[in-house]
Fold each of these.
Amino acid sequence: MTKDEKYSALMPRIQGLIGSGDTIADMANVAAALHGEFGFWWTGFYRVMDGELVLGPFQGPVACTRIAYGRGVCGTAWQRGETVVVPDVEQFPGHIACSSESRSEIVVPVWSRGSVVAVLDIDSREPATFDDTDRHWLELLCANLAENTF
Ligand code: SME
């Protein structure tokens, strides 16, 4: 199965998982579904709370709990309001290494009512794991989540 086919099969399953009426429950199941399907190293959410990113539901090793606006890949995606794909974390100035195992990363902002309310962060132990296919599907997923959850 290509990556595109995997995402395309996973999306309807994920759609069925969101809209429970509770944001944390929805984010938890989305993180678990993505993590289980692709075997990423770390998959989870940070929520915008009182002007910083706070760790939300995730799958994988323990992670930093708070990230400031504009800091690291997550804070940068929040500040820019757009997806950030990092093929090699060592080449990203200010990357926050929650785990020394992480080699590449994608962070997708979740927009709701004109502002970023959370980010979806995924880390891989392989370099250059994420590309435009991931960006496309994960942006769609975050738009869907925002519509039904936030
Ligand atoms: N690497 C992220 C921090 C979060 S962890 O990867 C889970 C960053 O630079 O923002």
Note: Residues 42, 63-64, 67, 72-74, 95-96, 98, 102, 105, 121, 123 surround methionine sulfoxide (CB under 6 Å).
Amino acid sequence: MAETLQFPTGHVRLGSNAGQPITRRDGALKVTGAATYAADNRPDGLLYAVYAASSIARGRVTHLDVAAAKAHPGVVEVMTTANRPPLARDPDAKVHMFSWRLEALQDDRVRYAGQPVAVVIASTLEAATEGARLLAPRYESEAPRTGLDDGEAFAPEAVGVGAPPSFDKGDVEAGLEAAAHRVETQYETPAQYHNALEPHAIVAAWEGDHLTVDVPNQAIAIARNDFASFFGIPPENVTLRSPFIGGGFGSKAILNGPQILCILAARMTGQPVKLVLTRQQMFGPVGHRGATRQALRIGTDADGRLTALEHRASAMTSRFDDFLEPAANASQNIYATPAMRQIHTGVRADIGTPGPMRAPGEASGSAALECAMDEAAEALGIDPLEFRLINYAETDPASGKPFSSKALRQCYAEGAKRFGWAGRPLAPRQMRDDAGHLVGWGVGTAMFPAPMFQAKARAVVREDGSGLVEISAVEMGQGALTALAQIAADGLGIDQDRLEFRAGNSELPDGGVAGGSGHTATAGSAIFAAGSDAIRKLADIATEDEASPLFGAGNAGVVARGGRLYRADDETRSASYSDIMARAGLAEIEGEGTGARNPANAEDYAMFSHGAVFAEVKVDPELCQIRVSRLVGAFAAGRIINPRLAESQLTGGMIWGIGFALHEETVLDPRTGRPVNGDFAGYHIPVNADAPSVEALLVGEDDPYVNALGVKGVGEIGITGTVGAIANAVRHATGVRVGRFPIHIGALLG
Ligand code: MOS
């Protein structure tokens, strides 16, 4: 009966669950504290590990007072380079695209501040903490280099996760030469650290050569395989449990050194061990958004059409690994231009390796691009929204392919209307509020790829008509458990309160990566396919059963809904799942499904989510304090499975955009290489008072090609247009264009 579940264009027919703005399935568990996070696990015999972190950024550890630590009451063991058990895999090896080089006490070198240099294992957290303090490391220190200017530049082979480091189309120099107006500009973005509310944490327990880890993780199957390879055991000997994650943002998609150290500690002591990073330890070994410097050149003709767009980015990475923020690539797919060029340079310094952080590349890159576009509009004397419409890309500027869908024009229109953009004065410093504050309005285009990865799922119809879906999908606060369960219920044709949904565990079918804004699309596709597979089997049984009201419905087809199958041509004829199964004497019917992109569609279409963000800022004319008084974003991301959660994702991204524009920055002391603001007292993120009015509008979009569900993604796009919109609003309010993020009061005081 598969064909009855398909639209000819490739869309499947979802049922009554998807599209509903239901509240989170796990909401009550979370507000009552019943949801367990990794650090909540306390197996019998639990020990606590605390690592000593290097206070220098470059050099060698020359001495650790192991005796003092060991003598402390409660300390069970001290792990150093001298006694660290062997690993089956070299932590300095790059094994696959998602493997980072890790520090796991392989030698005495210090590569950045905050690197683990020894681990103390004790019967209490307090004893382990005091033991780690007593180690009092001494160092042979070299002068660190931590900035973009004093690092060592190199030409990268790739940026991001395997993306090409450069791209060329047309003749950029000729385009700039022929331009009526040219803008040449530069923007810097700082290092930002993920700092999810839940810090990195792990509980590791060995039973013989079976390892169980409770660890928040966005890529469960990859992590399970990696843990297995580090410890020389088959993947099926690793059980990874990650039922709830208190925010990941990319940081929890990558394995890190402290996790390996905790598992080693459990192996050394023969007891379960817990290791939880302190907030301060989050600044170092667990990834960050690398700093960038971006130079743009934009040429336009007299009518405002782009003649050339060049985007160069220098991105920082560590001495020993190579992840680079793919910032320049953010300008490849947004604006129509006959000529463009994107080039990345890497800069090595004595810092921890950066990694993916919510909209890696697009967040930093679009911040610079959207500001540069605003500069170009200003040079032309054209309204910045009008300028973006003049350069609207009807096809993908990089590949020339059509977009699988693109409702960006509607996003601009609906966002502008809601915001009240019409009537915006062209010149800066024209608007004031009643309190005398300068008011400015800015716009930015939001865009993010709509990728799919690989996922598998299993679905079961039970004899009582209820359903079960199993997939190692990842709930990290984004609402996956809820949205995916809505798809699951529709795949099985049941109401969602009749569905049991199991996720977040490596024993379940591989749910793929919760990253790249592709989790709903990928895991959702697998889930729906698994449900459809089970229903197809059920329908085959019913239509061949003479006693069934559906007997002979084969050609006409059946529809699955509310735990019943209906004849498509005559809905008065129906049977409940439980009746069908009872007659057939079946307790369960099982289906399997996979999610992945249709390769033909991937070949033919460019696939992105789009949006437009409008910002209003108010600036105190004397103190130059900046407030974002209003943000309106309008986003088109294909079919929306749960509008409430999608809105929450989008507004969350926009609020991060406020942080990017005005607050977030890790400052390294150039003398020591240590963060001077490595905690929540000094590392500022927006609070409620910083985000008084943030609205995300969902613009309807039908995408027949992106996948059978028509689903794109909403996890990362919210941050992308917002940073530029705010910076442009600051410029509009004050007349000052600030070339460095976050925008400080000092830059406006000039
Ligand atoms: Mo994300 S940076 O793909 O978790």
Note: The longest strand covers residues 306-317.
